[in-house]
Amino acid sequence: MTGAAAAAAIQFDIAGDVSGIEIFGSGLINDSYKIEAGGAVYLLQRINERVFRTPRDVMHNLAVVIKHIDSIEVAQIEVPRPVGTRQGTFHVEDGKTCWRLFEFIDGDCRERVETAELAESAAEAFGKFQLALSTLDPGVLRRVLPGFHDFRK
Asked: From the CB of residue 33, how many other CB atoms can be counted at a distance below 10 Å?
């Protein structure tokens, strides 16, 4: 799959030639790759279309959420920034696969929380994210999964 990932990566507006590509994380939902190009680091993801049948809607929602968070002066949260393609979109489709690319945010990527301190830190970050989105009109989001945005369930 790294060959397909490399072919997708070069379609984005990245800082030079791809010099490194490696699988990143376990890919519980999407396949993720850490990409190095021109001294910059990116995260490339293949959107799992068996889970997200309308990847364009996923990308629409991402853009809406980032724009909303950017409009809040006190949000103080770091969100992944998508990198555009050379065609001016934020995703690449090759007929059966949809790819997206983000600026890489350095830090820990965990599948399990081993300590109470890590759980508290994760809860605090999630709480800040939810607070930032509390003023977002959910009607502007597209439905990608039934109940996906309904945290009351």
From this structure: 25
